[in-house]
Amino acid sequence: MNSHLLEILVCPLCKGPLRHDREHHELICSADKLAFPVRDGIPVMLESEARSTVAAAGAAPQADPTGPPAATGDADHSSPDPS
User: Fold this and answer.
1) Strands 34-39 and 51-52, how do they pair?
2) 65-74: long-range contacts at Cβ-Cβ below 8 A with a sequence spacing of 24 or more?
3) Which of 32, 44, 48, 70 is the most buried (most CB within 10 A)?
């Protein structure tokens, strides 16, 4: 992404500075805790396209859809019925 473009771009909400996260292809606004995607080298500066950089309080971790199902803790660990 062009360094001159980064110098003039600001957060569309608060007009604050943005930090370029090259690894995740995002522009980060620390003040609003939003990450705006950069797609094909073009920043998408729409609030509706931004993701929050803050995890929701008390949110359960997301299961990996390709991995084994997560244990629920509801398993019955009592002895088998001898009858």
Assistant:
1) antiparallel
2) none
3) 32
Q: Are 20 and 36 in contact (CB under 8 A)?
A: no
Domain ranges for the chain, please list them: 3-52
3-52 fold: N-terminal domain of TfIIb (2.20.25)
- Whole-angstrom distance, CA of residue 2 vs CA of residue 25: 13
Q: What are 36-45's pLDDT values in tens digits?
A: 999 999 999 9
Question: Structure pTM?
Answer: 0.64
H helical segments located in the chain: 3-8
